[in-house]
Amino acid sequence: MRYLPLTDTDRQAMLATIGAASIDDLFVDVPAEARLSGQIEGLPDHASELAVERHMSKLARQNLSAGEAPFFLGAGAYKHHVPASVDHLIQRGEFLTAYTPYQPEIAQGTLQVLFEFQTQVARLLGCDVANASMYDGSTACWEAIGMARRITKRGKAILSSGLHPHYVSVARTMAKFTGDVLAHEAPTLTAQTDIDALIAAIDKDTSCVVVQYPDILGRIADLTPLADAAHAAGALLVAVVTEPVALGALVPPGEMGADIVVGEGQSIGVGLQFGGPYLGLFACKQKYVRQMPGRLCGETVDAAGKRGFVLTLSTREQHIRREKATSNICTNSGLCALAFSIHMTLLGERGLRDMASLNHGLAVQAADRLAQVPGVTLLNDSFFNEFTLVLTKDARDVVRSLADKGVLGGVSLGRLFPDAPAIGKGLVVAVTETVTAEDIEALAMALEEEVA
Amino acid sequence: MTMLKEGRPTTPVAVADAHMAPATVTGNRALMLDEALIFEIGSTETTGVDFAPAPNVTSRLGGLERKAIGLPGLSEQETVRHYTRLSRQNYAIDLGLFPLGSCTMKHNPRLNEKVARMPGFADLHPLAPQSTVQGALAVIHELAAWLVTLTGMHSVAMSPKAGAHGELCGLLAIRAALQARGDARSVVLVPESAHGTNPATAAFCGYQVEDIPATPEGRVDLAALTARLGPDVAAVMITNPNTCGLFERDLKTISDAVHAVGAFVYCDGANFNAIVGRVRPGDLGVDAMHINLHKTFSTPHGGGGPGSGPVVLSEALAPYAPLPFVEKQGDQFVLIEEESAQDHHGGTFGRMVAFHGQMGMFTRALAYIMSHGADGLRQVAEDAVLNANYILRSLDDVLDAPFGTSGPCMHEALFSDKGLAEGFTTLDIAKGLIDEGFHPMTMYFPLVVHGAMLIEPTETESKAALDQFIMALRSLAERAKAGDEALKGAPYHAPRRRLDETLAARKPVLTWEAPVMAQAAE
After folding, report:
1. Are A277 and B360 inside 8 Å of each other by CB?
2. Confidence of residue A140 (pLDDT cuts 50, 70, 90)
3. For chain A, which end, N or C, has fewer CB atoms within 10 Å of the first or last residue's CB respectively?
4. Is the peptide bond before A253 cis (omega within 30 degrees of 0)?
5. Which one of B81, B86, B246, B336 would you mutate to disrupt binding with A, by most A Cβ within 10 Å of its Cβ?
6. Interior angle at CA A342, CA A336 and CA A344, nearest 5
């Protein structure tokens, strides 16, 4: 077995050192009825590297990957070009095969990356501080709701209708057990966001308002009035960003008064990966830092006076505080944070702005072209790289038919909101720098055949 | 010492620094290069990425254009160099033994990385039409079948993102099952040797946590546990093999007693590596157990994630499994999500995460499992246990093994700081190991042992590597017992000396800020 270095000679010598007659002697504490005498039945034996690779290649070929078709899917996961050096660097064994940096003297690589990552994320989201990452955007979102509950001592969260429905589902699941009350309705097909309705819904029991920016339909609104209204009522504003590239062009939520800003960082460096592993971003105002979940890296000095970095404020965490921890999270998304940070370093402010401009420019061109298709209406007044088209029929069927034509044309609102048939004719279309003029034309022609 | 006939040694030998080397003006030491922060070396004008020019269109950003961000960039060469330099300040499995107890730092096969990067998996959108992702759904289905068979359980929830997230999944399923029968129970029992995630998870789900003590031999106190069982207990969270490195002999008895009062058994599967292929948790009465794909099944730890924590479930809990899951209908794989869930599965407690879980880890884990096969996985458990016992018995004459007479250890060996000279600690031994070229063991956990040192070698360490580690640890134990003051200064050879963690917590600096230049005196 190619991953196992012990030889039978080694095993015999080691058993002799231990004073055991056979390996079975080391499993004597397993009760007899649970001791398997041979290997588990119904499972194949070991396989060569070639055989495994062949099997996995076969399965991989049964998928239509994003690069093989005109591709317009977004809704919380975006296809962006990731420079080759990112994947090269994250595969360095010193990063890939290291562990959580509990021994800082020999983990300065990971720790400095986390410190740089935290600063990049805080600046991108417009906040004072950020943590070292969460599992993904949806789990970061419900952690933010829990954090708002701890800070305000209130238990009602108002969720915007423009929040990603999976994020709503995750929050609903958790609320069943934490006792939070959630107010939420499905969106309607209008160009206006629900900011006014959210402001009207804030009351004395409200812990936080959770709003997505840009929202699930791609709409953008100034969050300042909402932040002011929340603060006036003693509540927090939690903003969710599922497309961080947008913040290369748009004012970040932190600068509009959001207290906690969370997001999905997958767009930068991580790739699509069929939904995971992704990267949860989590940032907040300085005054709330001790209520934050997850790991934090901080600067310090070593015994010789040199600057160095350590994990810090860990009394918030489960391994110290056990049942009184701010979260049960232990593993985060370290390698995805590294990929994000490398990609962001390559981009820099100039590159991020160029990337955002290109995304927005192509999206405007695509929106205008697709709106010319008979039976297709553009919903949005404002958007970044994602917008909603209203079709003449259920968009779920259209998406399936487009796939049969070899076009991955967007995400249907019917799939996202199965309980809201009123918006079933909506199709969410994302346009990134990976989309070409030919792709846009292919989608326009295919849509024309479907909805005309 | 073995010598060549020319008189040169053939193996590494102990060396002392002949003299204090003079300082360098850069702070660098040959191949060990210090690296500034990107905020100190980059600029907002520099970029390492070129884009096509943006189309000239009228912006539709709703009048919310952003001003300065403050993100420095580097050229590609500077970027590669920055991260390469930083990487060399990290210890890693690729460098040497990484014996962190309960973390299972085994070799990460590179085939896994190759497979995960196949475009058909890596460049796939989670909401792509199901007709276009049949191969991806097949991976989830195949891996699920392996996990269910290896554990002898009924079904598996694949979406949890990590071990602690899996614990949450298991407890939510338990809570949903109890609610379904109108049974409000408020207490979860957790042994005092449990991972901190266990009580944190139970508290998060709204349960009161009560500790169950350990016996002097390092196992759950069966009498104390059964005495506490009653109609208010929802679940017992137990780790098996436990964090003392021992197999819980009484687990089946415990499970029967727990089931008799209508409660459930949650098993923390962090240490499944010790028994995979040899013992099925399902045969021990477990109702839910998370499996850390980043431990037992070799997906990389990545400097702290991402992990993946699928949860195997008993028949009693299976109906409450979270969305989404994959079913085979005829020759098609179907992803059951919100849209179809109402028609199929009324019992689900809902969704734990956006999309479908850690696909990038599923492909890696499946490649690893297929590489080993049922025969190889059994060998994995045997070699992991053999390596741990070899360490235990090679060191128990110089270090105190508090449970050395409690039977064989499983995947990890536990020592205490008993017998070290006055003022010498587990931390000193750990930092000494750094100088000897090893990552330290887990320190001060489990809490039931004073100054715990928890060592998990895993099956992928050779006898030669273990022998060198044993030699180093023996020497450190002897130095700590003899009161060698120099040990308190370790590490001497790492990129940094001991770091001031108190300062970091007292005055937290969590983001970089430009230094304020002191005004020159007029």
Report:
1. yes
2. very high
3. C
4. no
5. B86
6. 100
- Tell me the HSE value of B305 on the side-chain side, using a 13 A CA sphere: 31
CA-based nearest residue to B43, from A347, A118, A299 = A347
SS in 3 state form for B243-261? CCCCCCCCHHHHHHHHHHC
Q: Which of A299, A352, A357 is the closest to B54 by Cβ?
A: A357
A98 closest CB neighbour out of B303, B308, B382: B303
CA distance B498 to B459: 31
* Residue numbers in B near A278 (CB within 8 A): 306, 354-355
Alpha-carbon distances of B249 from A170, B193, B222, B263, B455, rounded to whole Å = 38, 16, 10, 20, 21
What is the number of residues in chain B? 522
Enumerate residues 74 to 113 of chain B having a beta carbon within 8 A of any beta carbon in chain A: 74, 76, 79-80, 82-84, 86-95, 98, 100, 103, 105-109, 111, 113
Residue B521's pLDDT band (cuts 50, 70, 90): very low
Inter-chain touch A251–B65, beta carbons under 8 Å = yes
- Which residue, among A108, A169, A285, A328, would best test binding to B if mutated, counting the most B CBs under 10 Å from its CB? A328
List pLDDT tens digits, range A308-362: 999 999 888 777 777 788 888 887 899 999 999 999 999 999 999 999 999 999 9
The DSSP bridge pattern shows strands A181-183 and A156-159 to be: parallel
Write out residues 11-50 of B within 8 Å (CB-CB) of A. 27, 35, 37-39, 42-49
Contacts of B119 in chain A (CB under 8 A): 60, 65, 67-68
Interface check for A282 against chain B (CB to CB < 8 A): the answer is no
Minimum Cα–Cα distance from A124: chain B residue: B69
| B52-86: pLDDT as tens digits | 999 999 999 999 999 999 999 999 999 999 999 99
First to last CA, chain B: 66
**Would the pTM of this model clear 0.90, i.e. be above it?**
yes
Measured between beta carbons, the chain B residues lying within 8 angstroms of A314 are 505
SS (H, E, C) chain A: CCCCCCCHHHHHHHHHHHCCCCHHHHHCCCCHHHCCCCCCCCCCECCCHHHHHHHHHHHHHCECCHHHCCECCCCCCCCCCCCHHHHHHHCCHHHHCCCCCCCHHHEHHHHHHHHHHHHHHHHHHCCCEECCCECCHHHHHHHHHHHHHHHHCCCEEEECCCCCHHHHHHHHHHHHHHCCEEECCCCCCCCCCCHHHHHHHCCCCEEEEEEECCCCCCCCCCCHHHHHHHHHCCCEEEEEECCHHHHHCECCHHHHCCCEEEEECCCCCCCCHHHCCCCEEEEECHHHHHHCCCCCEEEEEECCCCEEEEECCHHHCHHHHHHHCCCCCCCCCHHHHHHHHHHHHHHHHHHHHHHHHHHHHHHHHHHHHHHCCCCCEECCCCCCCEEEEECCCCHHHHHHHHHHCCCECCEEHHHHCCCCHHHCCEEEEECCCCCCHHHHHHHHHHHHHHHC
